[in-house]
Amino acid sequence: MPNIQPYTVVDSTVRFGVYCVVWHFTSIGFAVEIGDNVCIGSHVYIGNFSNIGDETRIQTGVFLPNHSKVGQRVFIGPNATCTDDKHPRVGQPYEPQPPIIEDDVSIGAGAIILPGVTLHKGCVVGAGAVVTHDVWENSTVVGNPAYEIHGEREYKNKWNRKQNTI
Amino acid sequence: MPNIQPYTVVDSTVRFGVYCVVWHFTSIGFAVEIGDNVCIGSHVYIGNFSNIGDETRIQTGVFLPNHSKVGQRVFIGPNATCTDDKHPRVGQPYEPQPPIIEDDVSIGAGAIILPGVTLHKGCVVGAGAVVTHDVWENSTVVGNPAYEIHGEREYKNKWNRKQNTI
Amino acid sequence: MPNIQPYTVVDSTVRFGVYCVVWHFTSIGFAVEIGDNVCIGSHVYIGNFSNIGDETRIQTGVFLPNHSKVGQRVFIGPNATCTDDKHPRVGQPYEPQPPIIEDDVSIGAGAIILPGVTLHKGCVVGAGAVVTHDVWENSTVVGNPAYEIHGEREYKNKWNRKQNTI
User: Fold this and answer.
1) pLDDT tens digits for B105-153?
2) What percent of chain C has a predicted confidence (pLDDT) above 70?
3) Can you tell me the distance from the alpha carbon of A75 to that of A79, in angstroms, rounded to the nearest whole number?
4) Residues 27-86 of A with CB under 8 A from C
5) Chain B within 8 Å of A114 (Cβ-Cβ)?
6) Which end of chain A is more exposed for a tag (fewer CB within 10 A), N or C?
7) Residue C159 above 90 pLDDT?
């Protein structure tokens, strides 16, 4: 049984692996699947149909939209925000583009991941980065808009082209 | 009657239109007026005396200070923050400058709106933008500090002058 | 007795001075010491063993990691985030580097303080700033990464060198 603290809203359809913890004031939506040894901090929101891999740690205040895919051993820092709506307008239909976060990724505090972005295996997103494009394996991005500071040359060039954050 | 989920703190003086929803862990202050078909996400804080127009959607983790004016069909993305105190210092008096957010505005995830800013009708604030000046009708701003990427030329020039975020 | 609102999680070991207030949906950890006249907003997380000085105001949605040191008359704006783990990786040991925030500091909304940073007496951190280095007494920093806009010349030069946010 997961260790679910008081004042949490965990849908009855959520499936947990072993040794999970959910801290206070956290909301986990419909049909979310959570692996083993996952730690979910306080004030977190996890949207419907999301997947969270084994040993992942989601810190206080994180927002994950519906259908988020989060791999194993991922760290998501406090108040980081993922998004799925590229052009939000009230009353208009939209095609959700939830984030794909692969294994061993680390996301710094307060980072913002734009819709449709894939964070590839082992990459690092600096605190406060606003990530507008996919991030390559094992590379590191920082800034608003985010740019690569460690990684492969070719990809770096692509990143260094002028980018808009929307 | 609004659909108010458990674990919410909605002051008894709040007035709702029809078909409103308030999600968990949200706090709505004194004398707030809320229109029809408004959806307020979880972990939201809405300060006293605020107005929220019809069909507006306020996502998870948004902070709105006292006396915020929010129009109709406004989208405020997750973890966006509005402010009203230009030079916060403990123990010093201050003149609150709450935000004015006109109809059909969209604010991206994690954006920060500095005190006294007006977001004019239909404008778009990109995710993670730090908005230090008014944003013109139907224009789009991104970055920290925010600058205009789509909009009228004259205004763009004004924006492109060096800006400080404080 | 502190004024602790409903739906809060305050560890029984927390010590309060006189005239404190804790708003809804806030979590305060083990052995935290809080001075007199402290106001802690809603949706706040204060980690274990932290110290909060007299008359400090912590706004909605703030995250403070374990062992945070916060002085007197400090203002921490809504959704500001402090951190203590320079290179977060799941399963790897880390040496926590909690923030040191001296007296009379003001931190703007949504600012992010990187691990090990000291905010010296009376300094100001602009809204949305991502602070990667110590901030000198009475100076002001803004931007991502943060740079100094008011302060002593020598320090300013040091700040203006290219900085990475990680």
Assistant:
1) 999 999 999 999 999 999 999 999 999 999 999 999 999 999 999 775 4
2) 90
3) 12
4) 41-43, 55-57, 59-61, 73-75, 77-79
5) yes
6) N
7) no
pTM over 0.90: yes
As a residue count, chain B comes to 166
By CB atoms closer than 10 A (0-12, 13-18, 19+), residue A63 is: buried
* Pick from B38, A15, A9: nearest CA to A1: A15
List residues bridging with A4 in a β-sheet: A22
Give the pLDDT confidence of C102-153 residue by residue, as tens digits.
999 999 999 999 999 999 999 999 999 999 999 999 999 999 999 999 775 4
Do the Cβ atoms of A90 and B75 come within 8 Å? yes
Considering only CA atoms, which of B66, C151, B42, C139 is closest in space to residue A7?
B42
Across B72-76, average pLDDT: 98
Report the catalytic residues of A: 87
| CA distances to A58, A75, B165 from A39, in Å | 6, 10, 36
Of C83, C87, C90, which is closest to A56 when you measure between CB atoms?
C90
Q: Per the structure block, which two tokens stand in for A100?
A: 């794909």
Residues in CB range of A40: below 8 A, 6 or more apart: A20, A21, A22, A23, A26, A28, A34, A46, A52, A58
From the list B7, B127, B149, the residue facing A130 with the nearest CB is B127
CA distance B1 to chain A (A): 22
Chain A residues touching residue C25 (CB < 8 angstroms):
7, 25, 43
Q: Is B166 on the interface with C (CB under 8 A)?
A: yes
B43 part of the active site: no
Report the residue of A22, A28, A44, A90 to disrupt the B interface, i.e. the one with the largest count of B CBs within 10 Å: A90
Q: Which of B60, B50, B40 is nearest to B14 (CA)?
A: B50
Angle, CA B89 vertex, CA B158 and CA B77 arms, to 5°: 55
- 3-class DSSP assignment, residue B50: coil
Instruction: Write out the DSSP string of C46-114.
Output: E-TT-EE-TT-EE-TT-EE-TT-EE-TT-EE-TT-EE---SS--TTS-------EE-TT-EE-TT-EE-
B25 and chain A in contact, CB less than 8 A: yes
Planar angle of CA A80, A82, A86, nearest 5 degrees: 140
B143 interaction partners in chain A (CB closer than 8 Å): 144-145, 165
